[in-house]
């Protein structure tokens, strides 16, 4: 029995429910890709399924729309497949149990994520492609794979057969908000040399194991604007501030390049205990004062304190990390520039996400996530970090590059959408730009002079087992897309 039968738009929810029957977590996209390709072919439409399992379906213009510019409708077919730990389900092979919460007007899946992100785009595209009453220019539907794991489908896709330069991305989660720009990014992996030190120099020293923690952290794209503390930067500041020579047996902080680090631990050798403890007290007071609003639970605590004579048998190596710490201390971090075009938007930023001392390779590893909506600003910042690493004898590798999508002052698509939105709903949409990556950035890089806007219906708690897709909102956004296609 179908669960979403009575919902409108009927064909949209029909396809949405079909998708929930086909397991389609990232990297498990063969079946859904085949489903989409066979939909295209069985409807007599030009269909391309490439080596990445991306699917492109083209429907030529209807009568009277032959001279209108083609529209590209775009989204991704994969979802973040997660389930409640107590639910016994194999999300690689079993369908979702889709359900409706009528009182609160949303669709969800029992015990699992729903895939509203980005099933909305896929179901919208299929329902519109089969709609013979729709008047439309040439429609170019592009459904990518593995967006959630790094936009791999969009990276690999060949779009040379497309004729459109106007793209509507349907991968947003707030009705009434039109996204008009996103950041591009890359990862800087730096290795700074440290010197293995002889224990003989450090006989009378004491080893302090210290933790800087209690920080709020957050996503290095969306939350960098909040100016929260970075525990890796604080650790470098603490160490650089105390002594001209920094001896470490351990340093480790952060979990991912794109997460603002919340905890950093290190073991430092110091000569004068009381001097160091007085310094530590003052340091802690100072930084707690600086961050008392942004990071109220910040702490800096001594986990252990042992004389070198007690630890030297249990620890292989002590290193002099003075130059590497100078690098971590002086390297920029956080927001570097705000946009002058879009209020409140971070234009360029970086995050020192991970630091780790490796005694084996006598090096200190540091990973940064760099973002900017302006390509040249991203390169400039990257060059500065690389030059600084080089100054301290470090080596740098750049990985994970993805292009940004800069705000277009002149966007006929955005103007047309704003006018239509106001006509249909009696209010203006909100224009927004985000400091994180979207597939639009990759499309912008592959299609010349691309005019692009990203929209979507209200969704909540995507990527979790509480994911919700709102019904009336889906209906309105679907109708808006339909009307946009028919508008001239
Ligand atoms: Zn998505």
List keywords for this structure.
single chain; 488 residues; alpha+beta; Aminopeptidase; Alpha-Beta Plaits; eleven-stranded antiparallel sheet; six-stranded mixed sheet; 12 helices; 25 strands; elongated; binds zinc ion
What secondary-structure arrangement, pairings included, does this model have?
Elements: H1 10-21, H2 30-42, E1 46-49, E2 55-59, E3 71-76, E4 98-101, E5 106-109, H3 116-130, E6 139-144, H4 152-156, E7 166-169, E8 177-181, E9 184-193, E10 195-197, E11 206-213, E12 218-219, H5 231-242, E13 247-253, E14 259-260, E15 264-270, H6 273-290, E16 299-307, H7 308-311, E17 318-320, H8 322-330, E18 334-338, E19 346-358, E20 363-372, H9 375-391, E21 395-402, H10 412-425, E22 430-433, H11 439-446, E23 451-454, E24 459-460, E25 468-470, H12 471-486
Parallel strand pairs: 3-6, 3-7, 7-23, 8-22
Antiparallel strand pairs: 1-2, 2-6, 4-5, 5-25, 9-20, 9-21, 10-17, 11-15, 11-16, 12-14, 13-15, 13-17, 13-19, 18-19, 19-20, 24-25
Helix pairs in contact: 1-3, 5-8
The structure holds zinc ion.
Structure characterization notes:
Helices cover 29% and strands 28% of the residues. The two termini are 40 Å apart. The protein has two domains: 255 residues, Aminopeptidase (3-Layer(aba) Sandwich); 216 residues, Alpha-Beta Plaits (2-Layer Sandwich). It is elongated, with a radius of gyration of 27 Å. The strands form five sheets. Strands 9, 10, 11, 13, 15, 16, 17, 18, 19, 20 and 21 form an eleven-stranded antiparallel sheet that branches. With 488 residues, the protein is an alpha+beta fold. It binds zinc ion. The site of zinc ion has 5 residues, from helix 3.
């Amino acid at each position: 029995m179908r669960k979403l039968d009575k919902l409108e738009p009927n064909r949209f929810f029909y396809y949405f429910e079909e998708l929930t029957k086909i397991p389609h977590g990232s990297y498990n996209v063969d079946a859904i890709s085949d489903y989409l390709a066979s939909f295209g072919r069985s409807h007599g439409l030009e269909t391309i399924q490439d080596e990445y399992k991306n699917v492109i379906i083209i429907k030529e213009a209807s009568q009277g729309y032959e001279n209108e510019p083609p529209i590209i409708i775009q989204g991704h077919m994969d979802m973040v497949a997660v389930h409640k730990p107590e639910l016994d389900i194999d999300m690689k092979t079993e369908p979702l149990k889709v359900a409706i919460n009528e009182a609160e007007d949303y669709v969800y899946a029992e015990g699992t994520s729903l895939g509203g992100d980005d099933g909305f785009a896929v179901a919208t595209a299929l329902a519109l492609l089969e709609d013979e009453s729709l008047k439309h220019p040439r429609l170019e539907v592009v459904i990518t794979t593995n967006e959630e794991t790094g936009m791999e489908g969009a990276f690999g896709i060949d779009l040379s057969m497309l004729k459109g330069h106007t793209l509507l991305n349907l991968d947003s989660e707030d009705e009434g908000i039109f996204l008009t720009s996103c950041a591009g990014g890359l990862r800087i992996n730096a290795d700074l040399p440290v010197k293995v030190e002889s224990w003989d120099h450090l006989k009378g020293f004491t080893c302090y194991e210290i933790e800087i923690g209690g920080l709020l952290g957050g996503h290095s794209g969306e939350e960098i604007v909040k100016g929260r503390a970075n525990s890796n930067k604080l650790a470098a500041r603490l160490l650089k501030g105390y002594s001209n020579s920094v001896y470490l047996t351990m340093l480790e902080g952060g979990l991912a390049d794109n997460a603002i680090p919340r905890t950093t631990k290190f073991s430092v050798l110091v000569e004068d205990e009381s001097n160091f403890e007085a310094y530590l007290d003052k340091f802690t007071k100072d930084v707690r004062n600086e961050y008392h609003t942004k990071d109220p639970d910040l702490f800096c605590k001594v986990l252990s304190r042992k004389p070198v004579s007690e630890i030297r048998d249990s620890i292989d190596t002590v290193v002099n990390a003075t130059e590497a710490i100078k690098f971590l201390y002086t390297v920029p971090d956080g927001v570097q520039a705000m946009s002058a075009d879009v209020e409140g938007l971070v234009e360029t930023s970086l995050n020192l996400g991970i630091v780790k001392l490796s005694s084996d390779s006598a090096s200190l590893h540091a990973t940064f996530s760099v973002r900017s909506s302006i390509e040249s600003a991203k390169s400039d910042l990257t060059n500065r970090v690389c030059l600084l690493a080089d100054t301290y004898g470090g080596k740098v590798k750049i990985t994970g590059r993805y292009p940004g999508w800069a705000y277009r002052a002149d966007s006929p698509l955005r103007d047309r959408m704003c006018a239509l939105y106001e006509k249909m709903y009696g209010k203006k949409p909100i224009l927004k730009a985000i400091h994180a990556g979207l597939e639009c950035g990759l499309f912008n890089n592959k299609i010349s002079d691309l005019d692009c806007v990203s929209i979507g219906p209200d969704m909540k708690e995507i990527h979790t087992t509480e994911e919700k897709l709102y019904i009336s909102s889906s209906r309105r956004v679907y109708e808006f897309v339909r009307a946009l296609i028919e508008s001239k």
